[in-house]
Specification:
By secondary structure, the chain is an all-alpha fold. The protein has one domain. The protein is built from 19 helices and no strands. The radius of gyration is 22 Å and the shape is globular. The two termini are about 20 Å apart.
Length: about 450
């Protein structure tokens, strides 16, 4: 009892010191805008997703989940692994804003076209129905408007995340209303794909418009081919790493579709929607605190290390604060009529297992930013490949044995390998493994208790 009291007291002190730090206060306003906007999006998106799942049923909802999983595999090319690199460069070289943004948009557009072509060549091997193919094309086609997310990177780098959040919020509300209308008029599955496509149009056009309104620089953006080569050289490990990460995060749904049934995918996807709905908090922390970490590295190595450790600590605390209650009451909530309903009861055990991957997802996001700061992007590729190999092998074994439960276990283990254990593969990243271990074992809190 005494030890518990001291641990709680130490935890309160640790959080208090972090919250009162100058770095936290400087970036809190930016984080609060992103967090508040994302929370509103979370509520709207999750509730409407539950209604869509309930309307479509496990079988058709599984087809939609499968189509999104396949589509996302090719959308990753549109990102070109530029997110961390562009954000870093915008903070370090604000005077080169027009060149950075213009060149990044072109590279992302080339990536979107490449993804569309590659999927078209692979359709014959996947053997999907025309409806599923149509849904996948709509998901991939939306990437052409996601290229304009670079303007969101700009706002985040300027600590003005509220502008991007406003656009995202409007798109989520419109998307939610459209889906509710489709349910009311009993629309076929393909129309939900068109609604998804329209949402990305709204985001792309909205961010572009907001950038022009706030800067008047839209028509002054320029393309620098030499800088483009530099971006590709810096980001190619992140391109392949991003592809590998998406594969090992989505391969379970694709393998369930091919090895079991679309209904199994429906059960599994509904659990993932309940679990992954919280994943947004990781990027929110990264986008808001990343500039502070970069600035600390320029000024003071001790401050830089301290902020990184606080970042990892906060990531673990936040993940556990979500995972514990979701694991306890999530299965009960999931089968309530105001959410997915009794038809999705088999999703409960999947949720209890899968939600713990949140800890490693948050650590992985934090460490990806850490690698970008230290220009160690190649390590992301190595650890992601390790995670993919573990995931595929475990899925092949566990899905055939225990179905959707096996897929959840495979995902949890692969996330642990890719986001934590994988940092043991290179001596250059042992310090990241050590910092993550300190966060996972509450080292700073225990140290306070002992002192």
């Amino acid at each position: 009892m005494t030890h518990s009291f001291y641990m709680i007291t130490a935890l309160k002190e640790e959080i208090s010191q972090f919250v009162q730090s100058a770095g936290f206060k400087r970036y809190f306003k930016n984080t609060s805008w992103m967090l508040g906007g994302k929370l509103l999006q979370l509520i709207a998106t999750f509730w409407v997703t539950a209604k869509v799942a309930k309307y479509l049923g496990p079988d058709q909802f599984g087809l939609w989940g499968y189509a999104q999983s396949v589509g996302v595999l090719f959308i990753v090319l549109a990102g070109m692994g530029l997110k961390q690199i562009v954000s870093r460069n915008l903070v370090n070289h604000p005077d080169q804003e027009k060149k950075i943004l213009g060149t990044s948009i072109l590279l992302r557009l080339i990536g979107a076209i490449s993804g569309l072509i590659i999927y078209s060549l692979m359709t014959v091997f996947l053997g999907d129905s025309w409806v599923v193919m149509g849904l996948i094309y709509l998901v991939i086609g939306s990437a052409f408007f996601q290229v304009f997310e670079v303007f969101d990177f700009f706002f985040q780098g300027q600590v003005k995340a509220k502008f991007g959040v406003q656009i995202q919020f409007v798109s989520v509300i419109i998307f939610a209303l459209i889906q509710l209308i489709l349910i009311i008029i009993e629309a076929p599955l393909i129309w939900f794909g068109f609604a998804f496509f329209l949402r990305n149009i709204i985001v792309g056009v909205g961010l572009t418009w907001m950038y022009q309104v706030k800067t008047r620089n839209l028509f002054q953006l320029n393309i620098d081919w030499a800088y483009g080569k530099e971006l590709i050289r810096d980001s190619w490990p992140l391109i392949f790493s991003g592809m590998v990460v998406i594969i090992y995060m989505k391969v379970d749904q694709i393998m369930l579709m091919k090895m079991v049934s679309s209904q199994a995918v429906g059960y599994y996807t509904s659990a993932l929607r309940f679990s992954e709905v919280w994943f947004f908090l990781g990027p929110v922390l990264a986008r808001s605190l990343f500039p502070a970490i970069i600035n600390a590295k320029k000024r003071d190595q001790k401050l830089y290390r301290s902020r990184l450790q606080n970042y990892y600590n906060l990531s673990v605390w936040l993940a556990l604060a979500i995972s514990i209650p979701v694991a306890l009451i999530g299965p009960w909530l999931l089968r309530q009529e105001f959410l997915f309903g009794e038809a999705f009861t088999p999703s409960g055990p999947v949720l209890v297992i899968h939600v713990w991957s949140l800890v490693f997802v948050f650590l992985g996001i934090a460490s990806s930013e850490h690698l970008a700061v230290e220009n160690l992007q190649i390590v992301s590729l190595y650890r992601s490949i390790a995670g993919l190999i573990v995931n595929v092998l475990l899925n092949l074994w566990l899905i055939s044995w225990i179905g959707i439960i096996g897929a959840a276990i495979a995902t949890l283990f692969s996330q642990a390998v890719a986001s934590y254990i994988g940092y043991l593969l290179s001596r250059k990243t042992w310090h990241i493994f050590l910092m993550q271990t300190r966060a996972l074992t509450f080292y700073s809190i225990i140290k306070k208790i002992k002192s």
